[in-house]
Every structure is written in C-alpha cells, then in structure tokens.
C-alpha cells in the first residue's frame, strides 16, 4: 500500500508503525493526510497480522495541527463545504479511535490542535520530555470542535475547559498530569520506552485485547454520529463569526488580531 503523507511498516511481531511522513510541513493535517489516515485506520483494524499500532511522526514535530492550505480552503469555502470537510476530519478521528488493536502514541516536538486529537485517540502515549502541547484554536477565533469528543474522553471535561478556552501551550509533564499522555521520558529514552510499552500487549490474546478495548469504550461517554454532527455544527457557526474572519484573516496576513492584548 502506497501513501503520499504517511507510512505503514509492520514487523515480524505484528507491531505496525503508522508514521506521519510530512516533516517539511510539521506533519500538519492536509486533505490528503486526512484521507490516508482514515484508510490506514480501517486497514490496520482488520489486518489480522497486526497486533498493535505505534503512531509516530517524522521530523521536528508530531503534528502541528491543520495544514495551512487546507485552512485557507476552509476560510474561503461556504458553510456546506466547511461542514463536509470537517466531517471528513471527524470521521478520520473516529476511525483511528476505533482501531480494534492497541494504539500507542510516540510523541515528540509540537502537538497542537489536531495533534492533540491524535494523541487523544491513542490507548497509551509516551512523550518526550521536551514535547509541547496546545489547543490553540481560540487564538484564531475558532474552537477545537472535531477533536473535542476525544480530548474530553481522554482528560475529562474539567481539565479540558481551561485548555479549550485559553489556547495556552503546556508541557509534557502537564500533559501527563492531566492524563493526555501516560509516560514522559528524556528524548534519548523515547524508543526504549515505546518498546517497554509494547511488550505487555504481545503477551495478551489479540482478539481479547480488541474486545477489551471495545468494552472500555462502551463504558465511557458515547461518541455517536449525533455527537460528531453537533460539534461540526458549532464549528460551522464559529467559522461564520466576525471573530473567525478577524482571527484567521490576521493569521494569514501575519498580523495580530484585534483582541490581542
């Protein structure tokens, strides 16, 4: 299987590496990557040779959020097109969240916006101590809509609220403290920590592991198609606001938005 923006390599143990492979763009989520990650999730979920997935990334960043070209298209689009594209993104996160195998995130560098969403769909996440995180959408007059069900499922509403609203960046240690990542290690120890995280899963029965994951998901707050549609409607409303026009416009014009203190 050949992709443009990602790579999948599976070793003899059945450990598949799903790698974001656009380092020159800090692995930002483009329309192509959204489609390829959706396809990869469905393939990995049904491939009986795969027992576990490690989600990692090339280059300096894990994922910097939305691709600038994709963002520009949303800025210029009408409501129906924005809803359609947001739905594609939301369905990507849904497919990744429902992979019927353990998913371990290997996180380094920056994980912003959609990057935090990718961390949130992992069953466990190991982060480099120098990693940085942020839900930065409100800086643009937007909201972290499509990723919100997964972030809230991961860290809870109470911890999500200030991060959703303030758009502030936070450290790997804070990400561990709130439950976004499970382990934080020095950058040089990241690969060894991933191997240590993998090992227990390879002693468990593969089908039972998948069933256990579905069980845990069934006991949490359901992320239904109605939930997803409601978040997308809120995002569409937000795109049509004066703040979004000002915030996104300022971003592309490389100036400060009017509300910046």
Folded structure, characterized:
The chain has 261 residues and is an alpha/beta fold. The chain has one domain: Alpha-Beta Complex (2-enoyl-CoA Hydratase, Chain A, domain 1). Helix content is 48%, strand content 15%. The chain contains eleven helices and nine strands. Strands 1-2-3-4-6-9 form a six-stranded mixed beta sheet, with helices on both faces. It has a three-stranded mixed beta sheet with strand order 5-7-8. Strand 1 (6-10) and strand 2 form a beta hairpin. The longest helix has 19 residues, at 79-97. It is globular, with a radius of gyration of 18 Å. The protein starts with 5 loop residues before the first strand and ends in an 8-residue tail after the last helix. The mean pLDDT is 96.
Residue share in β-strands: 5-15%
Overall geometry comes to globular
Judging by the overall fold, what is the CATH architecture? Answer: Alpha-Beta Complex
What sequence of helices (H) and strands (E) makes up the elements?
EEHEHHEEHEEHHEHEHHHH
The helicity comes to 40-55%
> Stretches where pLDDT falls below 50 for ≥5 residues?
none
Mean pLDDT: 96
Characterize the largest beta sheet: strand count, sense, and whether it forms a barrel: 6 strands, mixed
Distance between the termini: 49 Å
Number of helices: 11
Structural class: alpha/beta
CATH class: Alpha Beta
Note the topology.
Elements: E1 6-10, E2 15-20, H1 31-46, E3 52-57, H2 68-76, H3 79-97, E4 103-107, E5 110-112, H4 114-120, E6 124-128, E7 132-134, H5 148-155, H6 157-166, E8 169-171, H7 172-177, E9 183-185, H8 190-198, H9 206-219, H10 225-239, H11 242-253
Parallel strand pairs: 2-3, 3-4, 4-6, 5-7, 6-9
Antiparallel strand pairs: 1-2, 7-8
Helix pairs in contact: 1-3, 3-10, 5-6
């Amino acid at each position: 299987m050949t992709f443009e923006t990602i790579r999948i390599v599976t070793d003899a143990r059945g450990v598949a590496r799903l790698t974001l492979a656009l380092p020159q763009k800090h692995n930002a989520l483009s329309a192509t990557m959204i489609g390829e990650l959706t396809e990869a999730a469905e393939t990995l979920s049904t491939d009986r040779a795969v027992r576990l997935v490690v989600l990692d990334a090339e280059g300096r960043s894990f994922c910097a959020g939305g691709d600038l070209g994709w963002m520009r298209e949303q800025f210029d689009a009408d409501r129906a097109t924005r809803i359609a594209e947001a739905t594609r993104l939301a369905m990507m996160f849904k497919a990744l969240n429902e992979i019927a195998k353990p998913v371990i995130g290997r996180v380094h560098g920056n994980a912003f916006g959609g990057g935090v969403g990718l961390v949130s769909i992992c069953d466990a996440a190991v982060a480099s101590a120098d990693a940085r995180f942020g839900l930065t959408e409100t800086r643009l007059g937007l909201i972290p809509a499509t990723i919100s069900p997964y972030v809230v499922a991961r860290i809870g509403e109470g911890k999500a609220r200030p991060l959703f609203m303030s758009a502030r960046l936070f450290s790997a240690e804070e990400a561990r403290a709130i439950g976004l990542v499970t382990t934080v290690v020095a950058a040089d120890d990241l690969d060894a920590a991933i191997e240590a995280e993998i090992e227990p899963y390879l002693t468990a029965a593969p089908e039972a592991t998948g069933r256990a994951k579905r069980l845990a998901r069934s006991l949490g707050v359901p992320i239904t198609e109605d939930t997803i549609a409601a978040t997308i409607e809120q995002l569409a409303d937000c795109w049509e606001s004066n703040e979004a026009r000002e915030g996104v416009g300022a971003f592309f014009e490389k100036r400060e938005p009017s509300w910046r203190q």
